Inverse folding.
């Protein structure tokens, strides 16, 4: 019986064992404000899962939703600026 697992591991090991590239880390860093805003929104929603939301909870959720939208808009504007200034002709 022939074993092919060793040959397979050599082929697939590079994709899973590599570190993020500088470009991937920059992209994550650029998206971090959106990620943090979404975490805040999720926190606000989790608080209301086991109880009836109060007016304060509703305000916190609305504020978190507005922040998510603002951060998404800011990210879209930043990436559009990079695309327009650094894009191909």
């Amino acid at each position: 019986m022939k074993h092919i697992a060793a040959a397979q591991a050599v082929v697939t090991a590079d994709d899973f064992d590599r570190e993020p590239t500088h470009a991937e880390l920059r992209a994550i860093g650029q998206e971090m404000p959106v990620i943090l805003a979404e975490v805040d929104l999720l926190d606000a929603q989790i608080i209301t899962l086991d109880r009836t939301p109060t007016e304060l909870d509703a305000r916190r959720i609305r504020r978190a939703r507005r922040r998510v939208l603002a951060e998404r808009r800011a990210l879209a504007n930043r990436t559009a600026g990079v695309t327009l200034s650094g894009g191909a002709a």
Notes: The mean pLDDT is 84. Residues 80 and 86 are 10 Å apart (CA to CA). The helical segments are 5-17, 22-47, 55-86. Residues 55-86 form the longest helix (32 residues).
